[in-house]
C-alpha cells in the first residue's frame, strides 16, 4: 500500500465516522471506484489496517470530547458513591453506558453468529440512499428535548439503532442521529450525545480486533500515516459537525447520500465500473 492511499483512506475514515454518511460504506466504495487492490486479498492485513484507522479516529474524537468525557465519568462515578436521584450529568453518563449494551449484543450476533455483512456494493448504495432519506424525515420533527430527558428505554433504542451500522452504508452516526431526532432531541444536543455514545463502541470494536493488529515489515509507514490522518480528520469532523448543526439541518447530507447511492447504482447497471 502506498502512503498516499493510506492517507486518503485515513482521511475518509476519520471524516465519515462522525458525518452521517457511513465510514464503512466509504471505505468500501473508495477503493472500488479507484480500482485499488492494496491488500491483494489478504483479509488479515485489511482487518489490521481497519483496526488502526478506527483507533486513530477514536484518539481524535476523544481529544476533542475530552472535557465532556471527564465530566460525565466524574458525575457517573460520584453518583455510584453518593447515590440519590439520578439526574443531570450523572443521568447522562448512565444513559450513555446503557446505549452500549444493545449495540454490543447486536455486534456479537452479527459478527459471530451471522458473519460479516460484507461489502456488497449495491447494498451499500441502497443503504446510503434509504437511510439518508430517513435522516431527513426525522430531522423535520421539532427538537425541544435534551439528553437528560431521555428514558433508559429510549437509550436502549438508540443503542439498538446504532447496531444497524454493522451493515456498510447505514452509518453509525447517521442512524443514531435519525433515532435521536425522531425522539425529538435537539439537533446539536443529539449530535454531542451520539458522538459520545459511539466512543465505547469504537473502542470495544478496536479492542476485540486488537489481535489482528499485526503490521508486516514494510507496512509501518502506511499504517502510521493512515492512523494519524484518521485521528486528525476525526478531530476535525466532530468539531465541524457540532458547529454547523446549530445553524443547518441534515438536508445536505441526504442529498449527498442520494447522489452517491444513485451514482454507484448507475455505474453498476452500466458496467462502467
Taking all Cα atoms into account, the compactness measure Rg is 19 Å
Main sheet summary = none
SSE ordering: HHHHHHHHHHH
Distance between the termini: 21 Å
Percent helix, as a range, is over 70%
Number of strands: 0
Q: Whole-number average pLDDT?
A: 88
Percent strand: under 5%
Number of helices, counting only DSSP H or I runs of 4 residues or more: 11
Instruction: State the secondary-structure class.
Output: mainly alpha
Low-confidence stretches: none
Number of domains: 1
Descriptive report:
With 273 residues, the protein is mostly helical. Helix content is 74%, strand content 0%. The protein has one domain (3-270). It is built from eleven helices and no strands. Helix 4 packs across helix 5 (88-114) and helix 6 (121-139) packs parallel to helix 8. The protein is globular, with a radius of gyration of 19 Å. The two termini are 21 Å apart.
What's the quick description here?
The protein has 273 residues and is mainly alpha-helical.
Protein topology:
Blueprint (H helix, E strand, L loop, with lengths): L2 H16 L4 H12 L8 H22 L1 H17 L5 H27 L6 H19 L12 H12 L8 H11 L4 H22 L11 H25 L6 H20 L3
Amino acid at each position: 500500500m502506498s502512503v498516499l492511499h493510506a492517507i486518503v483512506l485515513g482521511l475518509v475514515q476519520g471524516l465519515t465516522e462522525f458525518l452521517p454518511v457511513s465510514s464503512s460504506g466509504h471505505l468500501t466504495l473508495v477503493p472500488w471506484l479507484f480500482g485499488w487492490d492494496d491488500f491483494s486479498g489478504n483479509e488479515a492485513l485489511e482487518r489490521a489496517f481497519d483496526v488502526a484507522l478506527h483507533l486513530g479516529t477514536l484518539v481524535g474524537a476523544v481529544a476533542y470530547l475530552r472535557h465532556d468525557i471527564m465530566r460525565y465519568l466524574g458525575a457517573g462515578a460520584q453518583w455510584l458513591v453518593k447515590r440519590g436521584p439520578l439526574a443531570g450529568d450523572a443521568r447522562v453518563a448512565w444513559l450513555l453506558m446503557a446505549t452500549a449494551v444493545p449495540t454490543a449484543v447486536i455486534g456479537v450476533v452479527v459478527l459471530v453468529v451471522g458473519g460479516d455483512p460484507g461489502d456488497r456494493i449495491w447494498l451499500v448504495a441502497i443503504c446510503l440512499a434509504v437511510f439518508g432519506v430517513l435522516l431527513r424525515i426525522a430531522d423535520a420533527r421539532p427538537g425541544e428535548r435534551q439528553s437528560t430527558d431521555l428514558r433508559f428505554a429510549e437509550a436502549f433504542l438508540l443503542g439498538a439503532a446504532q447496531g444497524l451500522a454493522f451493515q456498510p452504508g447505514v452509518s453509525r452516526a447517521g442512524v443514531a442521529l435519525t433515532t435521536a431526532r425522531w425522539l425529538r432531541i435537539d439537533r446539536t444536543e443529539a449530535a454531542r450525545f451520539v458522538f459520545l455514545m459511539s466512543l465505547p463502541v469504537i473502542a470495544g470494536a478496536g479492542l476485540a480486533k486488537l489481535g489482528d493488529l499485526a503490521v508486516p515489515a514494510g507496512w509501518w509507514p502506511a499504517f502510521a500515516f493512515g492512523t494519524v490522518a484518521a485521528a486528525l480528520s476525526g478531530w476535525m469532523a466532530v468539531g465541524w459537525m457540532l458547529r454547523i448543526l446549530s445553524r443547518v439541518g441534515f438536508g445536505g447530507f441526504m442529498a449527498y447520500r442520494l447522489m452517491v447511492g444513485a451514482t454507484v447504482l448507475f455505474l453498476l447497471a452500466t458496467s462502467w465500473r
